[in-house]
């Protein structure tokens, strides 16, 4: 016979139990005792053949009482069980268990005193368990009472404190026990009990060591264990999350290395709704989702696409099979919103056309090429610089390039003898008298001034978001750090968590990025900001540029759908730095 504690979900009534087929028994007489003290007399069980589950031969009423407690409280501790071996006689074993347990004083505090005395005499926990026919866990539970304050032990003996509360008090330090006892003895206060006590001890953020993806020896903080030796928790949740996030990031990297095109890490507490997704193999673009509970538990959901994505892929596949022109699949999660792309395009456009002012020879060649090849703006008109919202418009207006460009506009208007106001030099109103007047003015100017006007007009008619902007930016070696600095409008437009985490890696390094991989985008942006400003003890990072602002353009993911990336791809083989 072997004595063990077995969880409720691994137990079921054996067909050999003579009450097996009857309805659930009345357990009202033993339920109060089970609630207060748990199951004391071991159930008699035998393996059912699969090595994990057991059939209850004797102890049916104790089993149903424990189930009732679990339904009411949400959980119940594993039950003490005597596991029969081949050839064991059930009646004899049950009688022996009851006889042995009858030798033990029913008062648990007296049991502690007895066990403590035996330990002092050199008896081991296993010896004591064998003597009284109980499990070693039950012996440890009684011995654990010795680590509680005497007043708490006495209150438990008088049944003023229930078993679950005592269990959680074993997690408390002596200082916490004294604080709890002060609340317990104050008639005006209410001391937390049961599950509320665990929240009181841990501040509602208890994290079990069982959920850790990393080796426990990597955690340098304190681990709290109850004195029963059955449950352990991380005392420092911040240190846990740093290591857990690094492990999650490593798992993500490993999945990507195995060929998964995309691995989405959901925010803590965000659920993966399988009914909103469709099973899709890796070769067909299936994605892996990683969910993380608030308690740190991690779960993988491999090979899924949202139902909308899966439907689009099927439609594209059917169109291809039928010979119909297939449209490129729309990215499921665009890396950049339209407003973010607009912001980036206008900043790049402003910087490139200002740099063009210093290269009239390039401007001349560009104007000739545009005259031959045509342009969407060659009517002629200035680029309207349409901003998607007021925040973007304000950001462009306050940039270094735009005011400098406006000053050059005034100088060019003065050279041409025109009033130094207006939003552009180019005004395609079809007035030939005005063209003749401008022509006469240009005839009087030296080549140097004509080149200056030519460079400005070429820059003013440069189309934002075009392949020409990308080609010029690379050829002229435009240094965006001279024109643009990280600011709130930009970060407000960046919403893709994968991109934000990649930016965090650029400014803070892989460890910091991995350590925040499940944090919200807002939190990660805050950490990026701390690095850029040198706040919160972070080492200040100077001159950082996101991929989107540097020339040539580079995205952070393979999702596609970015105009700057598509336009640069068309000309990248043709253009080289000046």
Structure description:
The chain is an alpha/beta fold. Among the domains are: 2-164, Conserved hypothetical protein from pyrococcus furiosus pfu- 392566-001, ParB domain (Alpha-Beta Complex); 248-322, no CATH class; 338-482, no CATH class. It is 47% helix and 9% strand. It has helices spanning 31-37, 60-73, 90-102, 108-120, 125-132, 136-144, 150-157, 163-169, 174-185, 194-202, 237-257, 307-322, 338-356, 360-373, 390-397, 401-415, 432-443, 447-460, 467-475, 488-493, 497-508, 510-515, 521-533, 563-571, and strands at residues 2-6, 11-13, 43-47, 54-58, 79-83, 223-225, 232-234, 263-265, 277-279, 287-292, 298-306. A hairpin with a 6-residue loop joins strand 3 and strand 4 (54-58). The radius of gyration is 37 Å and the shape is elongated. The termini are far apart. The relative contact order is 0.07. The model has no long low-confidence stretch (mean pLDDT 84).
Total beta-strand segments? 11
Task: Name the CATH class of the domain at 2-164.
Answer: Alpha Beta
Q: DSSP helix count?
A: 24
Question: What structural category arises from helix and sheet content?
Answer: alpha/beta
The amount of helix comes to 40-55%
Shape estimate: elongated
**Under CATH, the topology of the domain at 2-164 is which?**
Conserved hypothetical protein from pyrococcus furiosus pfu- 392566-001, ParB domain
Mean pLDDT: 84
Beta-sheet strand percentage?
Answer: 5-15%
How is the biggest beta sheet arranged?
Answer: 5 strands, mixed
- Rounded to the nearest angstrom, the distance between the terminal CA atoms is 86 Å
Cα gyration radius (Å): 37 Å
Unreliable stretches (pLDDT < 50, length at least 5) are none
């Amino acid at each position: 016979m072997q004595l063990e504690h077995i969880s409720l979900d691994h137990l079921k009534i054996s067909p050999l139990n003579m009450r097996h087929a009857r309805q659930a028994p009345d357990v009202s007489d033993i339920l109060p005792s089970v609630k207060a003290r748990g199951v004391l007399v071991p159930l008699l069980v035998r393996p059912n053949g699969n090595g994990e589950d057991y059939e209850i031969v004797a102890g049916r009423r104790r089993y149903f009482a424990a189930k009732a407690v679990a339904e009411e409280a949400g959980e119940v501790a594993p039950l003490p069980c005597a596991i029969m071996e081949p050839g064991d006689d059930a009646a004899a074993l049950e009688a022996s268990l009851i006889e042995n347990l009858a030798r033990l004083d029913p008062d648990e505090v007296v049991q502690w005193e007895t066990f403590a005395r035996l330990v002092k005499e050199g008896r081991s926990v296993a010896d004591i368990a064998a003597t009284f026919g109980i499990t070693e866990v039950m012996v440890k539970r009684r011995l654990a009472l010795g680590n509680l304050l005497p007043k708490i032990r006495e209150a438990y003996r008088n049944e003023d404190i229930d078993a679950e509360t005592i269990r959680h008090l074993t997690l408390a330090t002596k200082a916490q026990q004294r604080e709890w006892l002060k609340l317990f003895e104050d008639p005006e206060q209410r001391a937390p009990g049961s599950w509320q006590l665990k929240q009181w001890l841990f501040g509602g953020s208890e994290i079990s060591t069982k959920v850790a993806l990393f080796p426990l020896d990597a955690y340098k903080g304190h681990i709290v264990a109850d004195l029963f030796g059955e449950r352990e928790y991380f005392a420092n949740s911040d240190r846990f999350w740093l290591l857990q996030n690094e492990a999650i990031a490593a798992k993500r990297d490993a999945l990507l290395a195995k060929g998964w095109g995309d691995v989405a890490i959901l925010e803590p507490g965000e659920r993966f709704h399988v009914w909103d997704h469709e099973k899709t193999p890796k070769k067909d673009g299936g994605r892996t989702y990683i969910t993380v509970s608030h308690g740190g538990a991690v779960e993988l959901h491999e090979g899924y696409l949202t139902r909308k994505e899966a439907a689009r892929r099927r439609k594209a596949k059917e169109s291809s099979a039928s010979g119909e022109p297939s449209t490129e699949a729309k990215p499921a999660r665009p890396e950049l919103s339209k407003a973010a792309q607009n912001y980036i395009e206008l900043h790049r456009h402003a910087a490139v056309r200002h740099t063009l002012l210093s290269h009239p020879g390039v401007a001349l060649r560009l104007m000739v090429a545009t005259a031959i090849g045509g342009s969407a703006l060659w009517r002629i008109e200035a680029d309207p610089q349409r901003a998607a919202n007021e925040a973007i418009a304000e950001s462009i207006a306050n940039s270094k390039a735009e005011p400098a460009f406006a000053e050059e506009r005034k100088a060019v208007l003065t050279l041409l003898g025109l009033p130094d106001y207006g939003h552009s030099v180019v005004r395609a109103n079809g007035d030939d008298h005005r063209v003749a007047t401008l022509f006469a003015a240009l005839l009087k100017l030296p080549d140097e001034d004509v080149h200056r006007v030519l460079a400005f007009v070429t820059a003013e008619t440069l189309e934002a978001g075009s392949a020409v902007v990308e080609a010029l930016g690379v050829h002229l070696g435009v240094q965006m750090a001279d024109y643009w600095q990280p600011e709130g409008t930009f970060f407000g437009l960046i919403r893709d968590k994968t991109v934000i985490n990649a930016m965090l890696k650029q400014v803070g390094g892989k460890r910091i990025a991995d350590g925040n991989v499940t944090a919200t985008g807002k939190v990660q942006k805050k950490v990026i900001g701390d690095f850029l400003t040198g706040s919160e003890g972070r080492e200040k990072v100077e001159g950082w540029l996101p991929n989107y602002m540097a020339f040539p353009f580079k995205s952070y993911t393979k999702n596609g759908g970015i105009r700057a990336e598509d336009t640069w791809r068309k000309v990248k083989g043709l253009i080289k730095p000046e």
